[in-house]
Design brief:
The protein has 508 residues and is an all-alpha fold. The protein is built from 28 helices and two strands. Strands 1-2 form a two-stranded parallel sheet. It is elongated, with a radius of gyration of 39 Å. The chain starts with 8 loop residues before the first helix and ends in a 5-residue tail after the last strand.
Length: 508
Protein backbone atom coordinates (compact mmCIF):
# COMPACT_ATOMS: atom_id res chain seq x y z
CA UNK A 1 0.00 0.00 0.00
CA UNK A 2 1.31 3.40 -0.93
CA UNK A 3 2.16 5.73 1.94
CA UNK A 4 0.97 9.39 1.95
CA UNK A 5 3.99 11.62 2.26
CA UNK A 6 3.71 14.77 4.38
CA UNK A 7 4.32 18.03 2.57
CA UNK A 8 7.84 19.20 2.64
CA UNK A 9 8.87 21.89 5.02
CA UNK A 10 9.85 24.21 2.19
CA UNK A 11 6.37 24.10 0.65
CA UNK A 12 4.73 24.79 4.02
CA UNK A 13 6.91 27.81 4.58
CA UNK A 14 6.07 29.03 1.09
CA UNK A 15 2.32 28.87 1.75
CA UNK A 16 2.69 30.66 5.04
CA UNK A 17 4.59 33.49 3.41
CA UNK A 18 2.73 33.82 0.12
CA UNK A 19 -0.93 32.99 0.87
CA UNK A 20 -3.40 35.96 1.16
CA UNK A 21 -5.66 35.36 4.12
CA UNK A 22 -9.25 36.85 4.01
CA UNK A 23 -9.97 40.13 5.73
CA UNK A 24 -11.20 40.11 9.27
CA UNK A 25 -15.00 39.76 9.35
CA UNK A 26 -15.16 42.55 11.93
CA UNK A 27 -14.04 45.03 9.30
CA UNK A 28 -16.51 43.99 6.57
CA UNK A 29 -19.33 46.15 5.18
CA UNK A 30 -22.02 43.78 6.32
CA UNK A 31 -20.82 44.09 9.91
CA UNK A 32 -20.90 47.88 9.70
CA UNK A 33 -24.49 47.72 8.43
CA UNK A 34 -25.37 45.31 11.21
CA UNK A 35 -24.00 47.77 13.79
CA UNK A 36 -26.00 50.58 12.22
CA UNK A 37 -29.14 48.47 12.34
CA UNK A 38 -28.56 47.67 16.00
CA UNK A 39 -27.93 51.34 16.71
CA UNK A 40 -31.21 52.29 14.99
CA UNK A 41 -33.13 49.80 17.12
CA UNK A 42 -31.53 51.22 20.25
CA UNK A 43 -32.31 54.76 19.09
CA UNK A 44 -35.99 53.96 18.46
CA UNK A 45 -36.35 52.17 21.79
CA UNK A 46 -34.69 54.98 23.72
CA UNK A 47 -36.77 57.72 22.08
CA UNK A 48 -39.98 55.75 22.70
CA UNK A 49 -39.12 55.42 26.38
CA UNK A 50 -38.15 59.09 26.50
CA UNK A 51 -41.49 60.25 25.13
CA UNK A 52 -43.54 57.94 27.37
CA UNK A 53 -41.79 59.16 30.53
CA UNK A 54 -42.84 62.42 32.24
CA UNK A 55 -41.00 65.53 31.02
CA UNK A 56 -37.99 66.63 33.09
CA UNK A 57 -38.23 69.68 35.33
CA UNK A 58 -35.46 71.46 33.43
CA UNK A 59 -35.95 70.45 29.77
CA UNK A 60 -32.92 70.33 27.50
CA UNK A 61 -33.53 70.83 23.80
CA UNK A 62 -30.37 68.87 22.92
CA UNK A 63 -31.38 65.65 24.67
CA UNK A 64 -32.54 63.99 21.44
CA UNK A 65 -29.23 64.85 19.79
CA UNK A 66 -27.45 63.20 22.70
CA UNK A 67 -29.63 60.12 22.39
CA UNK A 68 -28.81 59.91 18.68
CA UNK A 69 -25.07 60.18 19.17
CA UNK A 70 -24.95 57.81 22.16
CA UNK A 71 -27.03 55.16 20.41
CA UNK A 72 -24.48 54.90 17.62
CA UNK A 73 -21.42 55.39 19.82
CA UNK A 74 -22.31 52.19 21.71
CA UNK A 75 -21.72 50.24 18.50
CA UNK A 76 -18.67 52.28 17.47
CA UNK A 77 -20.60 53.69 14.54
CA UNK A 78 -21.60 57.10 13.19
CA UNK A 79 -25.20 58.37 12.83
CA UNK A 80 -26.67 57.77 9.39
CA UNK A 81 -28.98 60.01 7.31
CA UNK A 82 -31.86 57.66 8.06
CA UNK A 83 -31.22 58.09 11.78
CA UNK A 84 -31.43 61.86 11.45
CA UNK A 85 -34.57 61.48 9.34
CA UNK A 86 -36.18 59.32 12.02
CA UNK A 87 -35.40 61.73 14.85
CA UNK A 88 -36.56 64.76 12.84
CA UNK A 89 -39.81 62.99 11.94
CA UNK A 90 -40.40 61.99 15.55
CA UNK A 91 -39.87 65.53 16.81
CA UNK A 92 -42.06 67.17 14.17
CA UNK A 93 -44.92 64.73 14.72
CA UNK A 94 -44.94 65.60 18.42
CA UNK A 95 -44.57 69.33 17.73
CA UNK A 96 -41.18 69.61 19.48
CA UNK A 97 -39.71 72.03 16.95
CA UNK A 98 -37.33 73.62 19.49
CA UNK A 99 -35.38 70.34 19.62
CA UNK A 100 -34.68 70.59 15.89
CA UNK A 101 -32.30 73.53 16.28
CA UNK A 102 -29.32 71.67 17.85
CA UNK A 103 -30.03 68.59 15.74
CA UNK A 104 -29.90 70.52 12.46
CA UNK A 105 -26.85 72.48 13.66
CA UNK A 106 -24.98 69.25 14.34
CA UNK A 107 -26.02 67.81 10.98
CA UNK A 108 -24.89 70.96 9.22
CA UNK A 109 -21.57 71.61 10.97
CA UNK A 110 -20.21 68.29 12.24
CA UNK A 111 -21.34 65.56 9.89
CA UNK A 112 -19.53 64.73 6.66
CA UNK A 113 -21.99 62.70 4.60
CA UNK A 114 -24.11 64.16 1.81
CA UNK A 115 -27.54 64.71 3.30
CA UNK A 116 -30.36 63.34 1.11
CA UNK A 117 -32.73 65.97 -0.25
CA UNK A 118 -35.87 64.10 0.86
CA UNK A 119 -35.07 65.03 4.49
CA UNK A 120 -35.46 68.73 3.66
CA UNK A 121 -38.48 68.17 1.42
CA UNK A 122 -40.32 66.46 4.27
CA UNK A 123 -39.19 69.12 6.74
CA UNK A 124 -40.45 71.92 4.47
CA UNK A 125 -43.85 70.21 4.23
CA UNK A 126 -44.01 69.88 8.03
CA UNK A 127 -43.16 73.55 8.49
CA UNK A 128 -45.87 74.44 6.00
CA UNK A 129 -48.53 72.40 7.81
CA UNK A 130 -47.55 74.20 11.01
CA UNK A 131 -47.75 77.59 9.21
CA UNK A 132 -44.04 78.18 9.94
CA UNK A 133 -43.36 79.77 6.57
CA UNK A 134 -40.19 81.60 7.58
CA UNK A 135 -38.65 78.37 8.90
CA UNK A 136 -39.56 76.61 5.66
CA UNK A 137 -37.88 79.33 3.61
CA UNK A 138 -34.83 79.33 5.90
CA UNK A 139 -34.24 75.58 5.66
CA UNK A 140 -34.64 75.73 1.87
CA UNK A 141 -31.86 78.28 1.46
CA UNK A 142 -29.63 76.38 3.93
CA UNK A 143 -29.82 73.12 1.96
CA UNK A 144 -26.38 73.63 0.29
CA UNK A 145 -24.82 73.98 3.77
CA UNK A 146 -25.80 70.37 4.44
CA UNK A 147 -23.73 69.12 1.50
CA UNK A 148 -26.85 68.69 -0.60
CA UNK A 149 -27.65 70.10 -4.03
CA UNK A 150 -31.20 71.55 -4.03
CA UNK A 151 -33.35 70.66 -7.00
CA UNK A 152 -36.75 71.56 -8.37
CA UNK A 153 -38.30 69.00 -6.00
CA UNK A 154 -37.39 70.96 -2.90
CA UNK A 155 -38.39 74.20 -4.65
CA UNK A 156 -41.78 72.73 -5.53
CA UNK A 157 -42.25 71.60 -1.95
CA UNK A 158 -41.62 75.18 -0.78
CA UNK A 159 -43.93 76.63 -3.45
CA UNK A 160 -46.69 74.22 -2.43
CA UNK A 161 -46.29 75.34 1.18
CA UNK A 162 -46.26 79.06 0.42
CA UNK A 163 -49.10 78.99 -2.10
CA UNK A 164 -51.57 77.52 0.37
CA UNK A 165 -52.07 80.84 2.17
CA UNK A 166 -52.06 84.46 1.09
CA UNK A 167 -49.28 85.46 3.49
CA UNK A 168 -47.11 82.82 1.85
CA UNK A 169 -47.94 83.79 -1.72
CA UNK A 170 -46.44 87.27 -1.26
CA UNK A 171 -43.09 85.60 -0.57
CA UNK A 172 -43.09 83.60 -3.81
CA UNK A 173 -41.60 86.24 -6.18
CA UNK A 174 -38.53 86.69 -3.98
CA UNK A 175 -38.13 82.91 -3.69
CA UNK A 176 -38.20 82.50 -7.46
CA UNK A 177 -35.53 85.19 -7.93
CA UNK A 178 -33.21 83.64 -5.35
CA UNK A 179 -33.76 80.14 -6.72
CA UNK A 180 -32.18 81.28 -9.99
CA UNK A 181 -29.00 82.13 -8.09
CA UNK A 182 -29.11 78.59 -6.68
CA UNK A 183 -29.19 77.34 -10.30
CA UNK A 184 -32.61 75.73 -9.93
CA UNK A 185 -34.51 75.73 -13.20
CA UNK A 186 -38.27 75.96 -13.05
CA UNK A 187 -40.09 73.04 -14.64
CA UNK A 188 -43.67 72.56 -15.80
CA UNK A 189 -44.59 71.22 -12.38
CA UNK A 190 -43.47 74.49 -10.78
CA UNK A 191 -45.60 76.58 -13.13
CA UNK A 192 -48.54 74.28 -12.48
CA UNK A 193 -48.29 75.04 -8.75
CA UNK A 194 -48.18 78.78 -9.43
CA UNK A 195 -51.12 78.67 -11.84
CA UNK A 196 -53.23 76.65 -9.39
CA UNK A 197 -52.44 79.13 -6.60
CA UNK A 198 -53.34 82.14 -8.75
CA UNK A 199 -56.60 80.48 -9.76
CA UNK A 200 -57.49 79.84 -6.11
CA UNK A 201 -57.10 83.52 -5.25
CA UNK A 202 -59.06 84.55 -8.36
CA UNK A 203 -56.08 86.09 -10.19
CA UNK A 204 -56.81 84.47 -13.51
CA UNK A 205 -55.13 87.29 -15.49
CA UNK A 206 -51.75 86.44 -13.98
CA UNK A 207 -52.40 82.74 -14.54
CA UNK A 208 -53.04 83.40 -18.23
CA UNK A 209 -49.85 85.48 -18.37
CA UNK A 210 -47.84 82.54 -16.99
CA UNK A 211 -49.52 80.25 -19.50
CA UNK A 212 -48.49 82.51 -22.38
CA UNK A 213 -44.95 82.75 -20.98
CA UNK A 214 -44.66 78.97 -20.90
CA UNK A 215 -45.84 78.71 -24.48
CA UNK A 216 -43.41 81.36 -25.70
CA UNK A 217 -40.50 79.83 -23.76
CA UNK A 218 -41.03 76.31 -25.04
CA UNK A 219 -42.47 74.72 -21.91
CA UNK A 220 -45.01 71.95 -22.20
CA UNK A 221 -48.52 72.97 -21.15
CA UNK A 222 -50.88 70.24 -20.02
CA UNK A 223 -54.65 70.06 -20.00
CA UNK A 224 -54.87 70.24 -16.22
CA UNK A 225 -53.33 73.70 -16.19
CA UNK A 226 -55.83 74.98 -18.75
CA UNK A 227 -58.65 73.45 -16.71
CA UNK A 228 -57.46 75.35 -13.62
CA UNK A 229 -57.65 78.63 -15.48
CA UNK A 230 -61.00 77.87 -17.11
CA UNK A 231 -62.51 76.91 -13.75
CA UNK A 232 -61.17 80.14 -12.24
CA UNK A 233 -62.72 82.17 -15.05
CA UNK A 234 -66.10 80.54 -14.43
CA UNK A 235 -65.91 81.44 -10.74
CA UNK A 236 -64.84 85.04 -11.35
CA UNK A 237 -67.48 87.66 -10.59
CA UNK A 238 -68.05 90.45 -13.06
CA UNK A 239 -66.60 88.47 -15.96
CA UNK A 240 -68.51 88.29 -19.21
CA UNK A 241 -69.39 85.02 -20.86
CA UNK A 242 -67.64 86.15 -24.04
CA UNK A 243 -64.27 86.11 -22.25
CA UNK A 244 -64.84 82.54 -21.08
CA UNK A 245 -65.83 81.42 -24.57
CA UNK A 246 -62.80 83.21 -26.02
CA UNK A 247 -60.45 81.36 -23.68
CA UNK A 248 -62.09 78.04 -24.59
CA UNK A 249 -61.46 78.80 -28.26
CA UNK A 250 -57.80 79.61 -27.53
CA UNK A 251 -57.49 76.29 -25.74
CA UNK A 252 -58.75 74.52 -28.84
CA UNK A 253 -56.21 76.32 -31.03
CA UNK A 254 -53.48 75.00 -28.72
CA UNK A 255 -54.80 71.48 -29.15
CA UNK A 256 -56.40 71.18 -25.73
CA UNK A 257 -60.06 70.23 -25.85
CA UNK A 258 -62.13 70.84 -22.71
CA UNK A 259 -63.32 67.78 -20.88
CA UNK A 260 -66.73 67.05 -19.42
CA UNK A 261 -66.02 68.87 -16.16
CA UNK A 262 -64.73 71.92 -18.04
CA UNK A 263 -67.80 72.04 -20.27
CA UNK A 264 -70.11 71.66 -17.28
CA UNK A 265 -68.43 74.60 -15.57
CA UNK A 266 -68.81 76.74 -18.69
CA UNK A 267 -72.45 75.75 -19.19
CA UNK A 268 -73.24 76.54 -15.55
CA UNK A 269 -71.55 79.93 -15.88
CA UNK A 270 -73.34 80.80 -19.13
CA UNK A 271 -76.74 79.77 -17.74
CA UNK A 272 -76.12 81.89 -14.67
CA UNK A 273 -75.30 84.85 -16.93
CA UNK A 274 -78.49 84.29 -18.95
CA UNK A 275 -76.61 83.18 -22.08
CA UNK A 276 -78.72 80.06 -22.62
CA UNK A 277 -78.16 79.87 -26.39
CA UNK A 278 -74.38 79.96 -25.90
CA UNK A 279 -74.73 77.25 -23.27
CA UNK A 280 -76.62 75.13 -25.81
CA UNK A 281 -73.79 75.78 -28.27
CA UNK A 282 -71.23 74.42 -25.78
CA UNK A 283 -73.54 71.45 -25.18
CA UNK A 284 -73.65 70.67 -28.91
CA UNK A 285 -69.87 71.07 -29.18
CA UNK A 286 -69.46 68.52 -26.38
CA UNK A 287 -71.29 65.91 -28.41
CA UNK A 288 -69.30 66.84 -31.52
CA UNK A 289 -66.06 66.28 -29.60
CA UNK A 290 -67.28 62.85 -28.51
CA UNK A 291 -67.92 63.83 -24.87
CA UNK A 292 -71.04 62.20 -23.47
CA UNK A 293 -73.08 64.62 -21.31
CA UNK A 294 -73.87 63.44 -17.79
CA UNK A 295 -76.62 64.28 -15.31
CA UNK A 296 -74.78 67.43 -14.21
CA UNK A 297 -74.76 68.67 -17.80
CA UNK A 298 -78.46 68.07 -18.29
CA UNK A 299 -79.29 69.63 -14.92
CA UNK A 300 -77.63 72.90 -15.93
CA UNK A 301 -79.08 72.86 -19.46
CA UNK A 302 -82.60 72.07 -18.29
CA UNK A 303 -82.43 74.78 -15.67
CA UNK A 304 -81.32 77.25 -18.32
CA UNK A 305 -84.05 76.53 -20.89
CA UNK A 306 -86.75 76.37 -18.19
CA UNK A 307 -85.63 79.69 -16.75
CA UNK A 308 -85.74 81.04 -20.30
CA UNK A 309 -89.33 79.80 -20.62
CA UNK A 310 -88.58 77.41 -23.47
CA UNK A 311 -90.54 74.46 -22.10
CA UNK A 312 -90.73 72.69 -25.45
CA UNK A 313 -86.93 72.67 -25.59
CA UNK A 314 -86.87 71.33 -22.03
CA UNK A 315 -89.04 68.37 -23.09
CA UNK A 316 -86.73 67.73 -26.04
CA UNK A 317 -83.65 67.83 -23.81
CA UNK A 318 -85.21 65.41 -21.33
CA UNK A 319 -86.05 63.00 -24.15
CA UNK A 320 -82.54 63.32 -25.58
CA UNK A 321 -81.08 62.48 -22.19
CA UNK A 322 -83.05 59.24 -22.10
CA UNK A 323 -82.04 58.41 -25.69
CA UNK A 324 -78.35 58.88 -24.81
CA UNK A 325 -78.76 56.40 -21.97
CA UNK A 326 -78.19 58.92 -19.20
CA UNK A 327 -80.24 57.88 -16.15
CA UNK A 328 -81.76 60.98 -14.51
CA UNK A 329 -80.91 61.64 -10.87
CA UNK A 330 -82.90 63.55 -8.27
CA UNK A 331 -81.48 66.91 -9.37
CA UNK A 332 -82.53 66.40 -13.00
CA UNK A 333 -86.01 65.34 -11.95
CA UNK A 334 -86.41 68.31 -9.61
CA UNK A 335 -85.45 70.78 -12.34
CA UNK A 336 -87.80 69.13 -14.84
CA UNK A 337 -90.71 68.95 -12.38
CA UNK A 338 -90.13 72.61 -11.57
CA UNK A 339 -90.63 73.32 -15.26
CA UNK A 340 -93.87 71.34 -15.25
CA UNK A 341 -95.09 73.31 -12.23
CA UNK A 342 -94.31 76.58 -13.98
CA UNK A 343 -96.50 75.39 -16.85
CA UNK A 344 -99.26 74.54 -14.32
CA UNK A 345 -98.98 70.95 -15.53
CA UNK A 346 -99.25 69.63 -11.98
CA UNK A 347 -100.79 66.28 -12.87
CA UNK A 348 -97.85 65.45 -15.13
CA UNK A 349 -95.53 66.38 -12.29
CA UNK A 350 -97.39 64.03 -9.94
CA UNK A 351 -97.13 61.23 -12.53
CA UNK A 352 -93.38 61.84 -12.69
CA UNK A 353 -93.18 60.73 -9.05
CA UNK A 354 -94.22 57.22 -10.04
CA UNK A 355 -91.70 57.21 -12.90
CA UNK A 356 -88.96 58.26 -10.53
CA UNK A 357 -89.70 55.40 -8.15
CA UNK A 358 -89.80 52.89 -11.03
CA UNK A 359 -86.26 53.97 -12.04
CA UNK A 360 -85.03 53.69 -8.45
CA UNK A 361 -84.86 57.44 -7.80
CA UNK A 362 -86.66 58.31 -4.57
CA UNK A 363 -88.32 61.76 -4.55
CA UNK A 364 -87.12 64.04 -1.76
CA UNK A 365 -88.71 66.90 0.16
CA UNK A 366 -87.70 69.38 -2.57
CA UNK A 367 -89.67 67.39 -5.12
CA UNK A 368 -92.81 67.28 -3.01
CA UNK A 369 -92.50 70.91 -1.90
CA UNK A 370 -92.58 72.13 -5.51
CA UNK A 371 -95.79 70.20 -6.18
CA UNK A 372 -97.30 71.23 -2.84
CA UNK A 373 -96.51 74.87 -3.60
CA UNK A 374 -98.40 74.69 -6.88
CA UNK A 375 -101.32 72.82 -5.27
CA UNK A 376 -101.44 75.44 -2.52
CA UNK A 377 -101.51 78.36 -4.94
CA UNK A 378 -104.29 76.79 -6.99
CA UNK A 379 -106.34 76.06 -3.85
CA UNK A 380 -106.36 72.28 -4.39
CA UNK A 381 -106.47 71.32 -0.71
CA UNK A 382 -107.43 67.70 -1.33
CA UNK A 383 -104.50 67.25 -3.69
CA UNK A 384 -102.24 68.99 -1.21
CA UNK A 385 -103.36 66.73 1.63
CA UNK A 386 -102.93 63.68 -0.61
CA UNK A 387 -99.32 64.61 -1.42
CA UNK A 388 -98.62 65.21 2.27
CA UNK A 389 -99.97 61.75 3.14
CA UNK A 390 -97.87 60.24 0.34
CA UNK A 391 -94.78 61.91 1.79
CA UNK A 392 -95.45 60.25 5.12
CA UNK A 393 -96.11 56.85 3.53
CA UNK A 394 -92.90 57.04 1.45
CA UNK A 395 -90.83 58.06 4.45
CA UNK A 396 -89.94 61.48 3.07
CA UNK A 397 -89.52 63.80 6.08
CA UNK A 398 -91.40 67.06 6.17
CA UNK A 399 -89.39 70.21 6.79
CA UNK A 400 -90.20 73.79 7.62
CA UNK A 401 -90.86 74.64 3.99
CA UNK A 402 -93.37 71.79 3.69
CA UNK A 403 -95.40 72.93 6.70
CA UNK A 404 -95.21 76.58 5.64
CA UNK A 405 -96.66 75.73 2.22
CA UNK A 406 -99.40 73.66 3.84
CA UNK A 407 -100.20 76.47 6.26
CA UNK A 408 -100.42 79.07 3.48
CA UNK A 409 -102.79 76.81 1.52
CA UNK A 410 -105.06 76.20 4.50
CA UNK A 411 -105.20 79.88 5.46
CA UNK A 412 -105.84 80.87 1.87
CA UNK A 413 -108.91 78.63 1.75
CA UNK A 414 -110.16 79.74 5.17
CA UNK A 415 -109.51 76.41 6.91
CA UNK A 416 -108.77 78.16 10.19
CA UNK A 417 -109.27 75.22 12.55
CA UNK A 418 -106.84 72.99 10.67
CA UNK A 419 -104.49 75.96 10.35
CA UNK A 420 -104.42 76.41 14.14
CA UNK A 421 -103.57 72.73 14.67
CA UNK A 422 -100.75 72.90 12.12
CA UNK A 423 -99.48 76.17 13.59
CA UNK A 424 -99.18 74.64 17.06
CA UNK A 425 -97.32 71.66 15.60
CA UNK A 426 -94.93 74.03 13.84
CA UNK A 427 -94.29 75.97 17.04
CA UNK A 428 -93.42 72.71 18.77
CA UNK A 429 -91.16 71.40 15.97
CA UNK A 430 -89.35 74.52 14.78
CA UNK A 431 -87.98 76.68 17.53
CA UNK A 432 -86.16 79.29 15.48
CA UNK A 433 -88.45 79.77 12.48
CA UNK A 434 -91.07 82.38 11.87
CA UNK A 435 -93.72 83.00 9.24
CA UNK A 436 -95.88 86.00 8.43
CA UNK A 437 -98.83 83.62 8.01
CA UNK A 438 -98.92 83.38 11.83
CA UNK A 439 -100.28 86.93 11.94
CA UNK A 440 -102.94 86.10 9.40
CA UNK A 441 -104.21 83.22 11.53
CA UNK A 442 -104.43 85.42 14.62
CA UNK A 443 -106.22 88.12 12.67
CA UNK A 444 -108.69 85.60 11.25
CA UNK A 445 -109.36 84.19 14.73
CA UNK A 446 -110.05 87.67 16.05
CA UNK A 447 -112.27 88.40 13.08
CA UNK A 448 -114.33 85.30 13.89
CA UNK A 449 -114.56 86.27 17.55
CA UNK A 450 -112.25 83.46 18.74
CA UNK A 451 -110.20 85.84 20.89
CA UNK A 452 -109.37 83.28 23.57
CA UNK A 453 -107.94 80.91 20.97
CA UNK A 454 -105.95 83.79 19.49
CA UNK A 455 -104.56 84.68 22.91
CA UNK A 456 -103.56 81.06 23.49
CA UNK A 457 -101.62 81.03 20.23
CA UNK A 458 -99.98 84.36 21.03
CA UNK A 459 -98.98 83.06 24.45
CA UNK A 460 -97.39 79.97 22.87
CA UNK A 461 -95.57 82.10 20.31
CA UNK A 462 -94.19 84.33 23.06
CA UNK A 463 -92.98 81.25 24.98
CA UNK A 464 -90.99 80.35 21.84
CA UNK A 465 -89.48 83.88 21.76
CA UNK A 466 -91.47 84.71 18.60
CA UNK A 467 -93.24 88.05 18.93
CA UNK A 468 -96.40 88.55 16.87
CA UNK A 469 -96.40 91.36 14.33
CA UNK A 470 -98.23 94.68 14.50
CA UNK A 471 -101.25 93.31 12.62
CA UNK A 472 -101.79 90.62 15.25
CA UNK A 473 -101.61 93.12 18.13
CA UNK A 474 -103.99 95.48 16.34
CA UNK A 475 -106.47 92.67 15.79
CA UNK A 476 -106.30 91.62 19.44
CA UNK A 477 -106.72 95.16 20.74
CA UNK A 478 -109.66 95.77 18.45
CA UNK A 479 -111.44 92.58 19.44
CA UNK A 480 -111.53 92.78 23.26
CA UNK A 481 -112.64 95.20 25.95
CA UNK A 482 -109.98 97.79 26.75
CA UNK A 483 -109.66 96.89 30.45
CA UNK A 484 -109.56 93.17 29.63
CA UNK A 485 -107.03 93.82 26.87
CA UNK A 486 -104.78 95.79 29.19
CA UNK A 487 -104.77 92.96 31.73
CA UNK A 488 -104.15 90.15 29.26
CA UNK A 489 -101.66 91.97 27.08
CA UNK A 490 -99.72 93.23 30.10
CA UNK A 491 -99.36 89.64 31.30
CA UNK A 492 -98.15 88.60 27.84
CA UNK A 493 -95.61 91.40 27.66
CA UNK A 494 -94.35 90.65 31.16
CA UNK A 495 -93.92 87.00 30.22
CA UNK A 496 -91.60 87.90 27.37
CA UNK A 497 -87.99 86.83 28.09
CA UNK A 498 -85.34 89.47 28.56
CA UNK A 499 -83.39 88.45 25.44
CA UNK A 500 -84.53 89.83 22.07
CA UNK A 501 -87.34 88.05 20.25
CA UNK A 502 -87.70 87.59 16.53
CA UNK A 503 -90.22 89.88 14.95
CA UNK A 504 -92.45 88.48 12.28
CA UNK A 505 -92.18 89.74 8.77
CA UNK A 506 -95.10 91.93 7.83
CA UNK A 507 -96.91 90.88 4.72
CA UNK A 508 -98.49 93.85 2.98
Amino acid sequence: MAMLRPPSLSKTNFLRKRRKWPLSPYKATWHEKFHQHQAMQTLKSTITNQQSSPPPESPNNSQYLSILIDSFRIYNSDPTPNAYHFVIGTLTRSGQFDHLVPLLHHLEKLENFETPEFIFINLIKVYGNAHMFEDAVDIFFRIPNFRCVPSVYSLNALLNVLCKRREGIVMVPQILLKSQAMKIRLEESSFRILVAALCRIKRHNYAIWILNYMLNDGYAVDKKMCSFILSSLCEQKGLSGDEVLRFMEEMRKLGFYPGRVDCNNVIRFLVKEGMVMDALGVFDQMKTDGIKPDTVTFTFILNGVITDGDYEKADDMFDEMLVLGVVPDIHVYNVYINGLCKQNNIEEGVRMLASMRELGCKPDSVTYNMLLERKSKTGDLSGMRGLAREMDLMGVPRNWETDRIMLDGLVGKGEIDESCILLEEMLDKYFDHRCSTFDEIICELCHRGLVCKALQLVSKMVSKTIAPGARAWDALLGSVELSFAETILTELVNSLPMHPVRLLEHKS
